[in-house]
Amino acid sequence: MSDLTEWAYPLAESLLAEPLPRRWQHSLGVAERARTIALILGQDAELLEASAVLHDIGYSPDLAKTGFHPLDGARYLRDVAQADARVVNLVAHHSCSWMEAEARGLREELEGEFPREPAHLNDALCFCDMNTTPDGTPTNPVDRVNEIASRYGPDSLIGTFIRRAEPEILASTSRVLERVAAAKRQPM
């Protein structure tokens, strides 16, 4: 583990493991998915893994201020944890969060406070999140989107957002899988 991941895991655990054990298992699974695609990230592999384990800390009852977990988590990481700005930005923008922010009337706040990282990193974090069940096991993005819509209800804000985001989630997954396949075809 790098210094970044050595810092990120205990922080995420302290915020999620006790109050939200299932969310903690999901976060561990998302970080595990990040390790499986490290070959396409080079020096950013540790950045992605740290962001993956921290991506849902905004659900922690201690951090939930706006009720929009990407924003709450990113603000905590920036203002309290003094986290690496790139980790903060990835947490803020994970898994098409701008679409949910728009539905909540928070898009200007999100984008005004947190710039987006390069698209390949946002794709990678979306891939990891949307290929992991709530219990932390591997899945596929179609089943994951269906599970989210079912859990929150199709007419809820989250259900509507996730269906709106589904084409971009699938496109992100496709781009990541294409990069993984291309990397595996490269001679060593």
Alpha-carbon distance between the two ends: 24 Å
Query: How many beta-strand segments?
Result: 0
Please tell me what the overall shape is: globular
The fraction of residues assigned to DSSP E strands is: under 5%
Please outline the major beta sheet: none
Evaluate the radius of gyration.
15 Å
Description:
InterPro entries: HD/PDEase_dom, HD_domain, HDIG_dom. This is HDIG domain-containing protein. It comes from Streptomyces shaanxiensis. With 188 residues, the protein is mostly helical. Helices cover 68% and strands 0% of the residues. Helix 1 (3-16) runs parallel beside helix 3 (45-54), helix 4 (69-79) runs antiparallel to helix 5 and helix 6 crosses helix 7 (107-113). It starts with a helix and ends with a helix.
Observed structural traits:
188 residues; mainly alpha; 10 helices; 0% strand; globular; HD/PDEase_dom; HD_domain; HDIG_dom; HDIG domain-containing protein
A few lines on this structure:
The chain is built from ten helices and no strands. The chain is mainly α.
How would you summarize the topology of this molecule?
Blueprint (H helix, E strand, L loop, with lengths): L2 H14 L4 H16 L8 H10 L14 H11 L5 H8 L4 H8 L2 H7 L5 H12 L10 H12 L4 H29 L3
Helix pairs in contact: 1-3, 2-3, 2-8, 3-5, 4-5, 6-7, 6-10, 8-10, 9-10
